[in-house]
Amino acid sequence: MSDPRGEAGQGTPSYYGKSQGTDANMSLHLKRYCSSDDVAQGLCSSVSRLPNADQRAASLFGADTLSADGAVDAANDYATTLIQPVAPAALRGEQLSSLRGREAATRRRSYNSRMSLARWVTGYVTSLGVPSVTLTRDQKAEMTAEGLTPLDKASWLQAMALEVNRRVSSVSWNASLQAMPPVSVMREVATEMAQANYLALQNYRLSLYLATMGATRVAQEEEVAFKDGLIPMPSPTINP
User: What DSSP element (H or E) covers 146?
Assistant: First the structure.
C-alpha cells in the first residue's frame, strides 16, 4: 500500500524531509523512465525501455492487461505522479508539542486521508488490469481477430472486453448461435447474465468510491467557504 509513503512514515523518503522525498522520486524516474531529454541533460546514461511512462496516462489505460515486464509498476508510478509525487515531510518532535503543532497534525491527517482515498481508487483501477484470468480458446481467437497477440492469462477487464466484443462483432459466434440447440442457447444467456451481474457489481463499487470523493470535495469547498466568511474575534480573557 502507498499509505505509509503518503503519511511520511518511518522508513519512507519524506520521513526525513520533503527534499529527500523529491530526490527519491527523481531517482526512481531516472532508473525506470529515463527519456532522451534526461539523457541530454546528463541525468542518466541511456533511454529507458518505457521513457516518461510515469507521467503518461497510457501506462494506466493503454492496455486492458498490464504485462509483467514493468507495466504494473508503470501504472502504479503514473498514479503516484498523478496524485502525490512527493509526500510532505513528517511532523514530529517540537512540531507536535504546541497548540499550533497539534492543529497542523490534525490538518495533516485530513490531508493523508484524502490522498489515501485518491490512491485507493487508482489502485482499484490498476488491479483490474492485472493478469489473473486464464483465457478460453474462444477468447484467444477473439484476440487474434482483433489483431492482438493472444495471451494465456489476462485481466478481468480484458476478459470482459473480449466476451462483449465477440458477441457483438464475431461472425462465427453469431453463426454458431443460429445453430445452437435450446439448451446451449440457455447456457449462453446464463453466462451473459452472470457477466452483466459482475459488471454491475464493479460499477456499484466504483460509484461508492466516486460518491465518497464527491462528498470529500464538497466538504473541502465548504470548509474554505466557512473560513472566508468567518469574522475574526478577539480571544476572551479568562480569569483563573
Answer: none
Helices (H), 53-181: 58-61, 71-83, 94-97, 99-127, 137-145, 156-169, 171-179
Q: How far apart are the first and last CA of the chain?
A: 49
> Are 126 and 66 contacting, i.e. CB atoms less than 8 angstroms apart?
yes
Per the CB < 8 A criterion, the answer to whether 71 and 92 are in contact is: no
Taking residue 74's Cβ as centre, other Cβ atoms within 10 Å add up to 24
pTM of the model as a whole: 0.85
| Segment 183-237, tens digit of pLDDT | 999 998 999 899 999 999 999 999 999 999 999 999 988 888 887 666 666 666 6
Among residues 130, 88, 120, 142, which one has the least CA distance to residue 209?
Answer: 120
